[in-house]
Specification:
The complex is a heterodimer. Chain A is 73% helix and 0% strand. Chain A is mostly helical. Chain A has one domain: MetI-like fold (Orthogonal Bundle), CATH 1.10.3720.10. The longest helix of chain A is centred in the middle third of the chain and has 37 residues. By secondary structure, chain B is α/β, with parallel strands linked by helices. Among the domains of chain B are: 86 residues, no CATH class; 319 residues, 3-Layer(aba) Sandwich (Rossmann fold), CATH 3.40.50. In chain B, helix 6 crosses helix 8 and helix 18 runs parallel beside helix 20. Classes of the chains: A mainly alpha, B alpha/beta. The interface between A and B is large, with 29 and 51 residues.
Chain lengths: 302, 698
């Protein structure tokens, strides 16, 4: 038992060393844009996790005496029309936005990957049916469909989540299917078939791990767009409802005070922009590292 | 010396990488005279290609840090871009290894050759508009002239019916034709020196022989010097006047081809020659070179070959090694020990001959013996046809073109024997292997394993599946990059339900059998070399004690010394485990070394089947003879006989009668009318009208 634990630790340490010294890691950090992306995303994650600890005020407590205060030391980003601290609301909003983004992306990823894997590996009629479903899904403009879904289900954050999850999985399915189709023809998969490895196991152990690279890239980019989508739906009133500190809702109320209190709309706007930018930069960086097309050579020179 | 065309003096080329400085070329000095064919030989990673690229100034991203290159009295290292450009066209041109990569897929080959001619004749500014062939900027008729000259050039490099091929796009040509087009582009400017970087490595033996013949002709007619880079000493023996042997970025030995082949002075050259299967008796082990090429990043002193050299002394390891010039223009040797005599027998080499003698000595029983054991695999009239109709509509319209990948094959594999399947690429060797392993299902005919008819993988039971192991060709794709060696080898064991400790033990045993250390169990494929990956693939194939292992070109992607070690591993395994091998290869020298029986395939049909020594010594089928003649021989003075002309017909429309007749030197009218039967000739059989008469030839 102890021996196995030690072996596990040794294995993990080995993997860590391999990752730390790998060419991929070095290539990632060689580009300053990748580092900027990573820093933005890391900051956002820290802000979301430790938001309640950092935030100086309760995001919903009103202080009508100090309403529409410009940025000061006490209120680094000023206060809104009800005297709530914008900085605190922004931190809580990060928590919400990131949580939704992760949840939506995970749903999309799992759904899309499962469908793509099934379609690519099973082939034939199943493939045809599933891919036509994907075509139908891709034929609808995503945000419009989400609008319709959220509109039908009624305005709430949960419904926005559902709406966004339902519209985005098709690109994952396509990506996974195409990479399964090419991996399926590689010799190690044929070797596994010849050794009597079950279909189930071939799909999980051989095909899936080899499709993971491009999926991680897509998911990272997607986190940004989902945050944008959530904010957009909230902005038009279909998502989070007023007392909730959500970036889209804040933007929406802030636009009434654009003349007198510019910070109200600009703080959440800048947060959204920086977040999406951060995820896109990180995604680009990951693509450079994970893309099989410019992979580091598999084989050492003999 | 005014006849010297190219002289390289103490060239150092380095690459700055993340892992430190890579010294690819470390002090190479060599010359090429006018009208001379020089071979540059060495294992992969020895710096051959970097040397060649440095000559034409294409060493990027590397950097020439020391030394000089003089090409036609111009110093390449100091030349301006303009000078270099002129030099590249007029004086030197290059043929690359992979013709698929060299030709631009969006232009037809005539266009690309014509462009090369035009650039050479009008070296001025090359304006884009001229190349668009729009009437006001350039005249179409002028261009037509260039294209006509391209046709001439294509004829010179041996492309059949060039007038038809001139409009073909690269993907419409076969590999050999593409490489010829590449050669035509290189020759378009009528250069003084052609640098050919592994020009025939990707080609079949027959195509290689044709192309080498063209090089030789061109050299004789025009006096063009050729620098031929290759890892194949057979090719060198075939056409080169002089040889330069490289190792780890340094020149080990130079000299006339004859002297190098007959009387190699440097231990590395000797070892390289000894690894070649054609130099070793059929039943004995191949000598190998221990160790591997040193990491080019490491600092080193003394001779780079010292760690692998059996003559090495302390002086070799620490001191600067002198280059000794041999008398009478016999070249030079960079070795401390260069003065030992030829009669010296090398001290204990790994795997002295005879170690394997008892294992494969048992000759397989001749067909017709009554007490013959039942074969492991039997193929009876097996065919695999692919329908080319691309959809239900075409199928309805009755467009039923079929591609005959395998056609009417009868074959059996006995327990413990090595059956080699040889033929040019595209002849259906791999499809036949897939039919045996079950990746394909035969269109007609039956495949029997241990006497029971079997279908494809899905229909086979576990026992049948474990009976056949497979090793694939490409080290890049035969292992899952995301699984460790241990997991990869353990996978077949897991699929039959072994528990973990039992698997671990078995994996350890298998690693030991194929000559890998236990530490490598936790490695991932990208951490292994090509030879090691193939060992892992072999371990996986034998994990469940199969009685047959299908080896699909297992060594063709490997260097000679690595290949020799792998062949020895295979021989040991066969002796210990009583395995039968189906050994698929296009390399007849390897086949001659390993095979008990040989089956020759052409356009999906078996042309000749027989015991190896009989097929190699007294081939009965004209196709087998042609294949054998195409092997580059190591005898420097022997010239190949008539090599096979023409290209392989399409398997969609095979010739009537005998499929080989349109390339057969002996074909007569009868061949076109009747398809010959398989004829039994002693222990073998052949599919030819002439087979009997030929067999009686002395």
């Amino acid at each position: 038992m102890i021996g196995r634990f030690e072996a596990l630790v040794a294995g993990l340490r080995r993997r860590y060393r391999a990752v730390r010294t790998s060419r991929a890691t070095a290539a990632f950090f060689a580009n300053p844009l990748n580092v900027i992306g990573l820093v933005i995303v890391a900051t956002l994650t820290i802000a979301a996790v430790f938001g309640p600890v950092i935030a100086p005020y309760d995001p919903t407590s009103q202080d009508l005496v100090n309403r529409l205060q410009p940025p000061t030391l006490a209120h680094p980003m000023g206060t809104d029309q009800l005297g709530r601290d914008v900085f605190s609301r922004l931190l809580y909003g990060a928590r919400l936005s990131l949580g939704i983004a992760v949840a939506v992306t995970v749903i999309r990823l799992v759904l899309g990957t499962a469908i793509g894997l099934l379609a690519g590996y099973a082939g034939g009629l199943i493939d045809e049916l599933l891919m036509r479903l994907v075509d139908v899904q891709l034929a609808f403009p995503g945000l419009v469909l989400a609008l319709v879904v959220a509109g039908i289900l009624g305005p709430s954050l949960r419904n926005v989540m559902l709406a966004l999850a339902v519209v985005g999985w098709a690109s994952y399915a396509r990506l996974v299917r195409s990479s399964v189709l090419s991996t399926k023809e590689r010799e190690f998969v044929q070797a596994a078939r010849l050794m009597g490895v079950s279909r189930h196991r071939i799909a999980i152990r051989h095909l899936l791990p080899n499709t993971i690279g491009p999926i991680i890239v897509l998911a990272t980019m997607n986190l940004g767009t989902v945050i944008l989508g959530t904010a957009g739906l909230s902005f038009i009133g279909l998502g989070a409802q007023p007392p909730t500190p959500e970036w889209g809702t804040m933007l929406s109320t802030g636009r009434h005070h654009l003349r007198g209190a510019w910070w109200l709309a600009n703080a959440p706007g800048a947060a959204i922009m920086l977040t999406v930018l951060g995820f896109n930069l990180l995604g680009d960086g990951l693509r450079d590292v994970l893309d099989p097309n410019h992979d580091t050579p598999l084989e050492k020179p003999t | 010396m005014d006849s010297t065309l190219l002289s390289i003096d103490n060239l150092h080329t380095q690459f700055q990488t993340r892992n430190g400085l890579v010294r690819a070329v470390e002090g190479v000095s060599m010359t090429v005279d006018q009208g001379e064919i020089v071979g540059l030989v060495g294992e992969s990673g020895s710096g051959k290609s970097v040397t060649a690229r440095s000559i034409v100034g294409l060493q990027d991203p590397g950097e020439i840090v020391r030394g000089s290159i003089h090409l036609d009295d111009v110093a390449v290292t100091d030349a301006t871009d303009r000078q270099l450009r002129r030099l590249r066209g007029d004086t030197v041109s290059m043929v690359f290894q992979d013709p698929t990569e060299t030709l631009n897929p969006v232009f037809d080959v005539g266009e690309q050759i014509a462009e090369s001619i035009k650039v050479h004749e009008e070296p001025g500014p090359q304006r884009l508009l001229e190349y668009l062939h729009l009437p006001p900027f350039s005249s179409r008729s002028e261009w037509r002239e260039y294209r006509e000259r391209a046709i001439d050039l294509m004829e010179q490099v041996g492309i059949a019916s060039p007038a038809d091929r001139v409009d073909a796009y690269p993907h419409e040509l076969s590999g050999g034709q593409r490489q010829r087009a590449g050669v035509a582009i290189a020759l378009a400017s009528d250069p003084d020196l052609v640098i050919a970087d592994e020009p025939t490595t990707a080609l079949d033996a027959t195509t290689q022989a044709q192309l080498l013949e063209r090089f030789r002709q061109y050299n004789a007619e025009r006096g063009t010097a050729i620098l031929l880079i290759t890892h194949d000493l057979g090719v060198v023996a075939e056409i080169c006047d002089r040889v330069v042997v490289m190792y780890a970025g340094e020149v080990m030995e130079t000299g006339p081809t004859e002297r190098i082949l007959e009387d190699p002075r440097h231990p590395y050259t000797k070892a390289l020659l000894e690894c070649l299967p054609q130099r070793v008796d059929r039943e004995s082990r191949l000598p190998t070179i221990d160790g591997s090429v040193p990491e080019p990043t490491a600092d080193r002193a003394g001779c780079p070959f010292a760690p692998r050299c059996e003559y090495a002394t302390a002086a070799c390891r620490d001191e600067e090694v002198p280059t000794v010039a041999l008398a009478d223009d016999r070249g030079s040797v960079t070795c401390v020990e260069s003065n030992w005599s030829e009669s010296d027998t090398p001290p204990s080499r790994t795997g002295a001959p005879g170690a394997r003698s008892e294992s494969t000595a048992a000759p397989e029983s001749a067909p017709g013996d009554s007490d013959r054991p039942s074969p492991i695999v039997e193929l009876e009239g097996v065919s695999r046809h692919y329908s080319l109709a691309s959809g239900p509509i075409e199928r309805l319209l009755g467009d039923d073109d079929t591609l005959r990948a395998v056609d009417g094959v009868d074959l059996e594999i006995q327990a413990g024997e090595t059956l080699a399947l040889v033929g040019e690429s595209g002849c259906g060797k791999s499809t036949l292997a897939s039919l045996i392993t079950g990746l394909e299902r035969p269109t007609t005919g039956t495949v029997r394993i241990d006497g029971t008819p079997v279908g494809s993988v899905a229909d086979r039971d576990a026992a049948t599946l474990t009976d056949v192991g497979v090793v694939f060709q490409d080290p890049h794709s035969s292992l899952n990059p995301r699984l460790t060696v241990e997991r990869t080898i353990g996978e077949p064991l897991r699929s039959v339900g072994w528990n973990r400790p039992r698997r671990t033990d078995r994996v350890r045993e298998l690693l030991d059998r194929v000559g890998l250390s236990e530490q490598q169990a936790t490695s991932y494929p990208h951490e292994l070399s090509g030879g090691q990956i193939q060992r892992v693939a072999i371990a996986r194939a034998i994990a469940l004690d199969p009685s047959l292992v299908v080896l699909d070109e297992p060594v063709s992607a490997l260097d000679a010394s690595v290949q020799a070690r792998l062949l020895n591993v295979l021989a040991d395994l066969q002796a210990d485990l009583d395995l039968a091998y189906l050994f698929i290869s296009h390399d007849l020298t390897v086949v001659e070394h390993v095979a008990d029986r040989v089956a020759v395939m052409y356009l999906g049909e078996l042309m000749e089947v027989g015991p190896a020594d009989r097929v190699f010594d007294r081939p009965t089928h004209p196709y087998t003879k042609a294949l054998l003649e195409a092997i580059p021989s190591l005898e420097p003075d022997s010239s190949t006989g008539t090599s096979l002309e023409g290209t392989r017909p399409s398997p969609v429309e095979p010739p009537s009668g005998c499929v080989f007749r349109d390339r057969c030197p002996m074909a007569e009218t009868d061949c076109a009318e009747t398809d010959p039967d398989q004829r039994r000739l002693g222990p073998g059989r052949a599919k030819c009208h002439f087979a009997t008469t030929d067999a009686s030839d002395p």
